[in-house]
Amino acid sequence: MKISHGQIQSVIKAYARQPAGRKSIKDKKGSPAAREDQLVLSRVSREMRLAMETVARWPEVREDKVKEIQTALATGNYELSGEQIAEKILARTLVEKLL
After folding, report:
1. Which of 8, 33, 50, 75 satisfies CB 3.0 to 4.6 Å to 27 for a cystine?
2. What does the pLDDT average to over 73-84?
3. In this structure, what are the phi and psi dihedrals at residue 34, rounded to the nearest 5 degrees?
4. pLDDT for 14-65, tens place per residue?
5. What gap in Å lies between CA 6 and CA 13, rounded to an integer?
6. How many angstroms separate the CA atoms of 92 and 78, rounded?
7. DSSP code of 29?
8. Buried (b) or exposed (e) across 4-41, using 16+ Cβ within 10 A?
9. Given 3-state DSSP classes, what are the helix, strand and coil percentages for the chain, each rounded to the nearest 5?
10. Which helix (H) or strand (E) holds 85?
């Protein structure tokens, strides 16, 4: 899409014609007051943030679990059924769809 100089000028004129209805907030002395942005989080948002921070501190790889499985594989004691694998795949798929 090409934008011409004329189109740009039309947009500028449209914005220039907008009413200057916005009044600045004045402080007690009559000069424009500085406004601060505020963010208010709900209780649920604060709990979610706390949960996310807690999960972020967990290690990416659970070394103890890896060692346990490696030992079981090496000794031939690691048994896993196809049903268990399918359950994990389906559970993970559902979690990803929810997120």
Report:
1. 33
2. 92
3. -75, 135
4. 777 766 655 556 656 665 656 677 778 788 888 888 999 998 898 888 899 9
5. 10
6. 22
7. T
8. eeeeeeeeeeeeeeeeeeeeeeeeeeeeeeeeeeeeee
9. 60, 0, 40
10. helix 82-98
Residue with tokens 């209780």: 43
Q: Please enumerate in sequence order all residues whose Cβ is within 8 A of that of 78, keeping only pairs 6 or more positions apart, or say none.
A: 69, 72
* Contact assessment for residue 89 and residue 98, using Cβ atoms and an 8 Å cutoff: no
CB-based contact 92:85 (threshold 8 Å): no
Is pTM beyond 0.90? Reply is no
Residue 74 has pLDDT above 70, yes or no: yes
**Structure token digits, residue 69:** 């499985």
